[in-house]
Amino acid sequence: MLTTLALVKAELLANKSNIEATENSKIMKNIRTVEQRLFRLAGFGFAPYYETRTFNAYPENVSSVYNTYNLHQYLMAVNAISLGGTAYTWGTDIVGSPNFTPYHTLRITADPYSSCVTWYPTRRDIYSATNYISITGWWGYRRDYSTAWLSSGDTVQSNPLTISDTSLKVSDADGFDDWGRSPRFSPGNLIRFEDGSSGVYEVAEVTAVDYTTNIVTIRRGQRGTTATAHVQSTALTVWTPEPEIEHIVSRQAALLYSRRGAFTGSTTPEVNQTFLQDLLAELYDIVDAYSYSDEVQH
Fold first, then answer.
1. Per-residue b/e over 186-225, b at no fewer than 16 CB within 10 Å?
2. What's the Cα-to-Cα distance from 272 to each of 46, 268, 269, rounded to whole Å?
3. Nearest-5° angle of CA 264, CA 280, CA 272?
4. Tens digit of pLDDT for each residue in 196-217?
5. pLDDT for the residue numbered 48
6. 2, 118, 183, 283 - which has most CB atoms within 10 Å?
7. Taking CA 227 as the corner, what is the angle to CA 225 and CA 229, rounded to the nearest 5 degrees?
């Protein structure tokens, strides 16, 4: 998710200790509502998703001058890439553009004339593998993806955490993370188990935290990943969204919660209609700032 229960409570005018625990589910529902609306407004996601996506290698997406292919999507990290059924090495044979994340264009590094490596298919049969670029990796929008997973300062204390376990024992659930924020775990956090290989990790979502027993309740195998067993002392990292996105989702969710039941709006005299003002102007400004450039428009 793009924010946590703790961050939304911090945005509310009332002291967060005065908000009954029974209200937590309402706040979490508000968070999900805001995230869905943000996705519809922006046209892309700000949370990581791991999957294989395929693209038609049609000439209209290719620049023969620069030997590039326009994805029309945002890509943060690549585990495997193939063209026409042939695997290539990411970072050597094919690189992302711009030269920082998120990428929206791919470039073949070899000379297309001497290497015969090209984006163009041999035919336009949509069932032919020669028409496809296949990419397995992490999709979504996050600048500087290499720093996006922040050390929680904690580790798995379950011995072990099995594939089916949904109760994760940690050392200090309300301790400080590497940014000095407390609690380090809160409902809404995406946590990653740092024992993966070749860029493949399990991601889980925090749904509840008992700060007395240091038990974190999690939903396993989220964001396109698969639940796996984890040994004791496995490091845990937490997803940190774009700071502006985390900020506005927290504020917007807090607004929806605080004004529940109040349906005020503004009246436009010219048409004599009243429009509900349920979205912050700041949200629209931030979405505009992240709007697709000409290179990544659908």
1. bbbbbbbbbeeeeeebbbbbbbbbeeeebbbbbebebbeb
2. 37, 5, 5
3. 40
4. 777 789 999 999 999 999 999 9
5. 97
6. 2
7. 135
Phi, psi of 97 (to 5 degrees): -135, 135
State the Cα–Cα distance between residues 45 and 109, nearest whole angstrom. 29
Q: What is the pLDDT of residues 119-163, one digit of tens each?
A: 875 555 555 544 589 999 999 999 999 999 999 999 999 999 999
Tell me the two tokens of residue 98: 């711009």
Structure tokens at 20: 């009954």
Sign of the dihedral through C-alpha 126, 127, 130, 134: positive
From 157, 128, 107, select the one nearest 54 (Cα to Cα): 128
The helix/strand/coil state of 167 is: strand
Question: Do strands 149-155 and 86-88 pair parallel, antiparallel, or not at all (unpaired)?
Answer: unpaired
pTM of the predicted model over 0.90: no
Rg (CA), the chain: 22
